[in-house]
């Protein structure tokens, strides 16, 4: 029999399975985006596939908790971009608003991708990362909080949102904490949004062979225990 904690989590997750779909509260649905109703930046995730594909085990805390490689492309007639901002949110968490898994800003306009190697903290430099940009606050109080939804709650979507800005957010001066929150960035980017794009990747680990056979999978541990009895 599974440990009580796992059984309780699965029970609660099942009860709350219909509490999801907080898309209207995503970063790119906030007031600064009112003049940009549709995404125009195309985002691809080579490791997973097109929007709607599954994240891999190594993108999660059950694996290496590694940020998935992202690439983006602006339309040919796009206006001048000063820098990019990337926000990753889970709108399907059983909470009143989406869970923030990653916030990255001051991404140079010359960049059109994020690589797993970009997310190492640079010692003594506050919120600066090895990729030459900064990170903001997520729910896990980490640089990247990989997917680990509540057991029994079902598949969650993770919205990778790339936002192009007309002005560098630090040029706005004095409006951000050292590790800024989603709410702070919403205020700072008002009037600065040029365009944006969204790629929705799913966490369906329980449906993958990789997860089913991973030794950290509680179901696998229970199955091995049963076989040994």
Quick overview of this protein structure:
The protein is built from 4 helices and 8 strands.
**Number of β-strand runs:** 8
Number of helices: 4
Task: Report, as a whole number of angstroms, the end-to-end distance.
Answer: 12 Å
Rg of Cα set:
19 Å
Query: What is the structural class?
Result: alpha+beta
Percentage of β-strand residues: 15-25%
Helix percent band: 10-25%
- Output the helix-strand order: HEEEEEEEHEHH
Query: What sort of overall outline do the alpha carbons produce when their principal axes are compared?
Result: globular
Strand order of the largest sheet: 6-4-3-7-8
What's the rounded overall pLDDT mean?
86
Ranges with pLDDT <50 over ≥5 residues?
Answer: none
Topology (elements, then pairings):
Elements lengths: L3 H12 L26 E3 L25 E4 L9 E8 L8 E10 L4 E2 L19 E2 L20 E10 L16 H7 L4 E11 L5 H4 L5 H11 L1
Antiparallel strand pairs: 1-2, 2-5, 3-4, 3-7, 4-6, 7-8
List keywords for this structure.
229 residues; alpha+beta; 5-stranded antiparallel β-sheet; 3-stranded antiparallel β-sheet; 15% helix
Task: Describe, in plain words, how this protein is organized in 3D.
With 229 residues, the protein is an alpha+beta fold. The protein contains four helices and eight strands, in the order αβββββββαβαα. It has a five-stranded antiparallel sheet, with no helix packed on it. It has a three-stranded antiparallel sheet with strand order 1-2-5, with no helix packed on it. A hairpin with an 8-residue loop joins β3 and β4 (99-108). The longest helix has 12 residues, at 4-15. It is globular and about 55 Å long.
């Amino acid at each position: 029999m599974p440990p009580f904690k796992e059984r309780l989590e699965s029970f609660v997750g099942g009860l709350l399975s219909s509490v999801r779909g907080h898309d209207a509260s995503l970063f790119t649905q906030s007031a600064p985006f009112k003049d940009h109703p549709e995404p125009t930046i195309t985002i691809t995730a080579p490791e997973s596939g097109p929007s709607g594909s599954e994240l891999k085990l190594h993108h999660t805390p059950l694996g290496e908790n590694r940020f998935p490689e992202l690439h983006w492309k602006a339309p040919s007639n796009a206006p001048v971009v000063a820098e990019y901002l990337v926000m990753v949110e889970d709108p399907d968490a059983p909470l009143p608003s989406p869970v923030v898994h990653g916030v990255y800003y001051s991404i140079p306009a010359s960049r059109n991708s994020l690589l797993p190697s970009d997310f190492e903290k640079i010692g003594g430099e506050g919120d600066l990362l090895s990729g030459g940009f900064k990170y903001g606050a997520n729910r896990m109080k980490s640089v990247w909080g990989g997917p680990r939804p509540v057991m029994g709650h079902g598949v969650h979507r993770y919205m990778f949102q790339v936002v192009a800005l007309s002005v560098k957010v630090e040029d706005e001066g004095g409006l951000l904490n050292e590790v800024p929150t989603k709410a702070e960035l919403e205020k700072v980017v008002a009037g600065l949004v040029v365009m944006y794009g969204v790629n929705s990747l799913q966490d369906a680990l329980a449906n993958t062979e990789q997860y089913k056979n991973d030794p950290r999978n509680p179901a696998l541990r229970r199955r091995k225990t049963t076989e040994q009895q």
